[in-house]
Amino acid sequence: MQSDSKVEALFVGERVIAENSDLSRELYDKSRFGYPLEDGKFQLSLVEAFYLLKKGKLVVKDYRGKELSERAFIRRAKKYDSKFWIRFCVFNDLRSRGYIVKTALKFGADFRVYPRGVKPGEDHAKWIVYPVHESEVLTWYDFAAKNRVAHSTRKKLLIAIVDEEGDVTYYEIRWLRP
After folding, report:
1. Reported pTM
2. Is 151 a catalytic residue?
3. pLDDT digits (tens, 9 = 90+) for 23-32
4. Hey, what CATH class is 84-173 in?
5. Is 124 a catalytic site residue?
């Protein structure tokens, strides 16, 4: 991919739709950004799109064709997802460590994370991740429910605690039989 080339995308509701292009396909094939649609375009989650926008690989436009700045993107994303920034901090941290991170709504979690070198479809995710702000309260019921989901999907549970500076600390949780 040429360093000055950018994928064009449209902010549509709770997702971003990237153009049908060789650059879009390359982002998907090499790093699994997005999800291929039938028309050759790619659907990106809000955190994927913002990550690529910050990396200079994506230009996001609104329905009028106006290019969105990072600040405008965040403002719009927060309308659809009040925890957008917390989720983005975790997504960004994991991607910068070389992991492939995908949404995990069907697993009842925020993200599923694949070990380094493994792409979705080649093998299963190792973890499901729940991003939480350090000031957020998590009840024992919520905690047990998250652990149960991880156990039933045969994945390890990571609770990702995001502090005020956007730094992330991970805690792996698992069932133990004494």
Report:
1. 0.91
2. no
3. 999 999 989 9
4. alpha beta
5. yes
